[in-house]
TrEMBL record:
Gene3D superfamilies: P-loop containing nucleotide triphosphate hydrolases. Belongs to the ABC transporter superfamily. This is ABC transporter ATP-binding protein. InterPro entries: AAA+_ATPase, ABC_AA/LPS_Transport, ABC_transporter-like_ATP-bd, ABC_transporter-like_CS, BCA_ABC_TP_C, P-loop_NTPase. Residues 5-247 form the ABC transporter domain. It comes from the Bacteria. GO terms for cellular component: plasma membrane. Keywords: ATP-binding, Nucleotide-binding, Transport. The keyword Transport applies.
Length: 247
């Protein structure tokens, strides 16, 4: 399977603190690749380096063979990278349908002149909108306003809007954080169902979820990648256990 995202010698320090300290990581296309690690390990910094929120002190990020190091966040969707749960990407006073429709419309580079045509002049967008809404389990809410959704449903809509960016790589930052147990299970199933069609890089604290849905797990500790492999290998790694126990 081909590598879609490659980080090489990625590093970022804040003053004297090396938050990320020379990380090499290769994400294979179509897989779910999780990054875990104890608090302060550098996970958020690592994600921010990939999504362009912050610049690396050194090292490179390559996406689909192109060096994208330092590309600003607003350019990411054009490259085919969507980041979910970073900032709200949902319009509360639009319906579920219109939120997804608008995101697809923007992604497909239709200009204002196109918009002045009748909406149903875009059967392709309409069809894709319905497909994405079905995919995240919100078909029964299509005509509801986004602000009327439950917390769990809002998260699903955020995923839907991210998918409407037609990403090849989806960056998920703790997608189940703050969700009730039932919504956590739904989100876990959704992420798993996206595997194969999308590539997903996931930060997640909840170990059981990571072990359930990941193809590959990378473990960060004090800015360094200390272990990488399939869940079964990570679960039994002494090095990983030591890192979590602070030894
Ligand atoms: P994690 O997400 O794994 O908990 P972070 O990436 O947030 O870890 O942080 C890694 C280290 O870098 C921590 O020691 C943190 O205090 C430090 N750090 C992160 N961001 C900044 C910043 N903007 N300024 C100074 N130190 C930072
Ligand atoms: Mg963090």
């Amino acid at each position: 399977m081909s590598v879609i995202l490659q980080c090489t010698g990625l590093a970022r320090h804040f003053g004297g603190v090396f938050a990320v300290n020379g990380v090499d990581l290769a994400v294979r296309e179509g897989t779910i690749h999780s990054v875990i690690g104890p608090n302060g390990a550098g996970k958020s910094t690592f994600f921010n380096l990939i999504s362009g929120e912050i610049l690396p002190s050194s090292g490179t990020v390559t996406f689909d063979g192109t060096d994208i190091t330092g590309t600003p966040p607003h350019r990411m969707p054009h490259l085919g990278i969507s980041r979910c749960f970073q900032r709200t990407n949902v319009f509360p006073d639009l319906t579920i349908h219109d939120n997804v429709w608008a995101a697809l419309f923007a992604r497909m580079n239709k200009g204002p002149a196109d918009y002045l045509k009748r909406r149903n002049a875009f059967p392709d967008i309409e069809e894709k909108t319905a497909q994405i809404i079905r995919e995240v389990g919100l078909a029964h809410k299509t005509t509801a306003l986004a602000r009327t959704l439950s917390h769990g449903q809002s998260r699903m809509l955020e995923v839907a809007v991210s998918l409407a960016g037609l990403p090849r790589l989806l960056l998920l930052d703790e997608p189940t954080q703050g969700l009730a147990p039932e919504a956590t299970v739904e989100m876990t199933h959704l992420i798993r169902s996206l595997a194969g069609r999308y590539t997903i890089l996931l930060i997640e604290h909840k170990m059981n979820i990571v072990m359930e849905i990941s193809d590959t797990v990378s473990v960060l500790s004090l800015g360094r990648m200390i272990e990488e492999g399939p869940p079964a290998q990570i679960r039994t790694s002494q090095r990983v256990q030591d890192a979590y126990l602070g030894r």
